[in-house]
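Model: You mentioned two targets. I'll fold them one after the other.
Researcher: Yes, keep them separate.
Model: Target one:
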Amino acid sequence: MTVVFVVWGVFFAIWVCGRGESIYTLIQTMLSLFQGPSLAIILLGVLWWRATGKGALVGLIGGILMSTSLLTVDNFQNPALTAQDLKNPAGLVNKLNHPNDPVSTYLNEKLSEDSKQTLDLYEQSLLMNEKAPEGLRENLNEPIEMVQAEIEAAILGDINGLMGEENFYEEQRFSQIELDPEIQKYIQQNPKRKKLLQLNRLLLERAYPDEIEKNPHVLRPLLFQTEDPFLFIAWWSFCFAMLLTVVISLLTKPEPEEKLKGLVYRYRKESE
């Protein structure tokens, strides 16, 4: 088991790398899928004598499906940038590394020093690949892909962190970019939290149409305002699991009293 957990930990660390989320948030998000339903059936099983095993099983499964559905819908609405959203990483690198427009200049100033060094490294790798003889290009492709993964993680980490803190919009900065009326509405609302992330994502899509894919879900109404809604997911799955357990328990045959003695609050005195 130690070997299994060590191997799992290595792959989990690789998966976490570059996501821009803390391990605490990721673990709590995964636990939220089970915490709400589990708490619901435990409370009902201890405090309500009419709860049944079938009701608990349906409540647990239904609650987990509920929390999974909420997490899936929220992820679809997530405006954060991912590696899959970059249509042309090399083009974005070039614009950020050699800014010649107000948006790229602004982002370049906000990038960390490590990210700027990675930008230079990626650009050098591309130049080496272009100048190398055809026979050597295949050997250079693998290191270039590794550097590309590093630059994506570095840039996305910096930009996603900035998206949740600062409003990218400034009239002079976006004066040469055509903005939709819907984006103008967002700007006038002076958004916070996830709405700020939505606005910044929309602004980046308009500023870099050839480099960043459009997210069709960004303009949909938000399911949760907070960026990390694991507590809300746990709460609503708890309520749904409790409702299901109660309904199914009332529709099924009660458990025999002998089975409940010492386990349910109502029969505590008899057990003593």
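Model: Target two:
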Amino acid sequence: MRWLPPSSPLTRTQVIATYAISTGTLAGLTLALAGCGGAGKQDVQVMSFTPAGPIDKAESIVIRFDKPVVGEERVGKPAEPTTVAVTPAFSWTGFWQDRRTLVIDPSAKLAGSTKYEISLTGELAKRTKDFEFTFVHKPIAVEGVWGVDSGMLPPDGDLPISFNQPVHPADAARHCKLVGDAGDLAFVVGAGAAAANLTLRPARPLGSGTSYTLSCVNLVGAGGNLPLAQPYSLAVSTRPALEITSIEPEGDDIAADQVALTFNFTTPVEVEAARKAIRSTPAIPGLERGYISGDGLVYTVTADLETRATYALEVSGLVDTFGQRQLKPAKHTFKTGDARPRLSMERGIYALEASAKGYPVWSRNIGKYYIECATIPKERVVQLLTTDMNYDPWGGNDDDKPLDWNKLKVRAKTTSVKNAVKNKWQLADLDLGKACGSTAGARGVYLAEVRSDEIVPDPDRGWLSPRRNRVLANVTDLGVLIKTGTASASCG
């Protein structure tokens, strides 16, 4: 072993190296050098850090190293103010969670739309080769138009725009604009405090019923340093003048039964305003009892009309929900043809006084219809009512599915009724006792089905013209109406 002269003091590393060489433990030499570090050499790795991306609210900054970087005595103790540097600066407190984990807690409110840089300083910076990372607090976002329908903007009004954080009005005016077919339209630069909801005034009035694109680029939140990550765009349009775009039905041969009259508007209207503005010649009963669609753009009323008649509809004096007045009346004519074949009667479970003329069945434009009927013995009534048969009077009677009389264990009798009058409702008072083959007189419980093959069901309104109409009728002196639910015994 070679000793150095006394005038040359040994460093800790030289002592370890000398001992390692003398003993042949080169592995010990390597470990010792790595543990002590060397000037300008990285000997510590950052294994993880948070936050690692955009955040919406302040949270702890946590940096974890691959090996201990402080002594055990520092665990749980405050971190030195010079441990990290933050840009832009904010107040913080920190501590060592363990020998490898540094936790920094912001103690001041972070600015929105801001990119922060966190960097290690001092000895930690040297040992990690100046490690640093960034995160963004609450990136700026345009949330759209607020308080108004983006498709019904006022042509001569302001445009309310919403952001996810306060924005200076002047910045919003400089970085947002309306793009249209006639070119770009800027906003007037205004004063005022920063706010999340701003109202911007276009530099000139917008066109009526015109489409635009709201565009924002490079916009930064109040006090921030990071603009929009991507350009923002939203299709908007101004409301048109109030007009009636269409009135239906159209044609010269409209079936007169339950005609759906619809009036379409360019802007929304209230139902009472529509009812007051619409008239018909000849008068249509119930024209004022229609309803308005959810968006206020369509008024609909359904009515029975006269056959082979010409109707003139007019809409005038209409005012929409924005206060716009209809500029000129809208007129529309159509003609009805023959009525469609229909049967109308009480369906479901029904009670009929024995003194009545009979069970009323109305028919129109049907040459012949059939009554298939059976007497139900008293001991079979409960069994019949507990089957899966549907007595719903609103059309849930399996219109094209005939009754299975054999399954019901009763004998049915079929009779027919003929009509010859065109386009007029005909009333037939059916004697159910006779029609069902009762031997005990008119009184009793009868299951009847009235049907006609001449009826063509409406595919969109099956309730309007069912082929089969079913009723369980109790002909009695008691006058009791049996109901199986809230919608029994209704007229079809």
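Researcher: Noted. Anything on target two?
Model: The CA atoms of residues 65 and 328 lie 78 Å apart.
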